[in-house]
Amino acid sequence: MCGIFSYLGNQSNAGKLVVEGLKKLEYRGYDSFGFVEAVPATSSGQGNGKLKLTKKVGKISEFPLSTFYFPISNLALGHTRWATHGKVNLRNAHPHLSADGKVAVVHNGIVENHAELRKELQKKGVKFASDTDTEVIPNLIASYLTPRFTGGLREAVRRAAKKLKGRFAFVAAAEGAEKLVAARSGSPLIVGIEKFYPKSDDRLISKIDGSAFFIASDVPAFLKFTRDVVYLDDGEMVEIEPSPKNDHFHAHFFEIENGKTVKKRVISIDWKSGKAEKGDFAHFMLKEIFEQKETIERALNQDERQIEKVAELIRKSFGAFFIGCGTAGKVCATAEYLFAKIARRHVNVIFGSEFDTQEPFLTNKTLLIAVSQSGETADVLEAFKIAKKRGVRTVGVVNVEGSSVARHSDVVLPVNAGMEKAVASTKATTAQLAILTLLAYAVAGKLDEGKQMLAEAASQINDLLNPRYSEHLEKIARKIKNVESLYIIGKAADYPMALEAAIKLQEVSYIHAEGFAAGELKHGPLALITKGTPLIAFVPAEEYRADVLSNVAEVKARGGRIIGVSAENDELFDEWIRVPNVGNAQPIVNIIPIQLLAYHLAVLRKNNPDLPRNLAKSVTVK
Ligand code: M6R
After folding, report:
1. 465 and 324 within one domain
2. Are residues 267 and 289 in the same domain?
3. Burial class (CB in 10 A: 0-12, 13-18, 19+), 200
4. CATH code at 39?
5. Whose CA is nearest to atom 10 of ligand 1?
6. Tell me, what DSSP letter sits at residue 186?
7. What is the per-residue pLDDT across 225-275, written as a single tens digit (0 to 9) for each?
8. 232 lines ligand 1 (CB under 6 A)
9. How far apart are CA 337 and CA 206, in angstroms?
10. Looking at the predicted structure, is the pLDDT value of residue 558 above 70?
């Protein structure tokens, strides 16, 4: 949901460095991109002169570095956009400059009161050049930077940030000032420090020294340079500037509200940059599907004390809510079935964006279990705010280490799937499913049994995921690649998987796909079936097999083309997708061939499965 990346340091190729970093953040938005470089005033590289702006419409990955001319510069800020306000075109691409061209801003989020602020600024004579909400930010900053204003860029940014309503993360630079100032409220912002040298071993400090600093929406942008990071929290800002001797750089942290200094902790993260490459795979999505050979096993590698602690919290809670959005929301929905079956316990499931409707029921006995790959989904973070207000305990099942969900949860169960780059979630999904299944066993007091069952399923997945299996799915994809609609059914925990299968197919193949509870078809959706309409059915090996096959037969009788996902073939199936029979781990196994089917449909229909149209990996707006 928009990627921000900026650099201030001792290298003189800041523009190139920012473009390279933005390429790693492309998954956050790929409608357009742009960057500003502060070009030195003299040819020998002294002082900061004008802000040089470059913008393009389209995906940054489609523009080789040779497209650009990078002048000598040690300060640059860039942005890759997922459009919210204003069409996808050059004038709405970031960075945005103030009307006088002296302040540049890159922003992720939504300024909810932009119309009001725009009017105020227009009354003062400011002329706007775009349709974005963002453009008010550089203009607000510029409005403070009058010759009589002594506060400098930092104070101007602070005052501007205080006027903004909504969620934001932005970075600002100004002509003639060798500094970057950034502020955060709701959207992620991480400071990377190259050659971090603390004065002591204490990593909780208010002023940090380094040879260079990066400010980004996500870690991959600067992973090749450093693993030392500071996560900005809501209501905080950072100023980066040269040291008095001009031999290195400082970062200072402040509160937006009152400008007071805040102490921040420098954390060394252990992400591996190599994991973000495609290797021999044509796309990240395919690579990540195949990584499930090991990621499910890795998900099981939990600290048992933590799992038991969460199990105890669930047992003791008066109302446990599993929340997530999109795919993570479907993962949560399986919990309702898994906990009923394995632990004989009712749990509540609700999308992050709907959680506020439950506020009247929240007390300090309630438990919130948030499932999120990115840990930055705005709807989930909003739920956290409500939960904290009501004294609700929180658990995060989260993939991205150091993310907002991870930092704000009372207990974290790490998903351990490694970096997931493709917008369509695959390996994080099955790892989350494994953790929720394990948790249901822990609540039942049968953690070891759960571990064993899931480890067995993981090894069966290892056997299943091979090139021949993928080719089989490709063959099926060829047969259905031109259909207008397709439907998916499942019963019990396979029902949320039918919903998840639909999301996967929608987002990368762009075919109209819908999931239903198997028994629900006859109550309406059956009217949609005509000759040849594909129906993907998750047909259990044992329990409910007869029920689901009856529903399948009803579709077959109306000319539907049946694609059965099952451990055993059946005469009703036109196509059979074989999956092992793995008991309570069945949802994990069932979704994998549909991920492959969606992938092949995308490729056959000439869509880019890694960067589906209109979407972004991390949805940091409400
Ligand atoms: O990062 P999160 O797991 O919180 O993201 C939630 C959804 O935005 C995400 O699952 C989305 O639905 C995916 N594109 C699905 O593949």
Report:
1. yes
2. no
3. exposed
4. 3.60.20.10
5. 327
6. B
7. 999 999 999 999 999 999 988 889 999 999 999 999 999 989 888 766 545
8. no
9. 48
10. yes
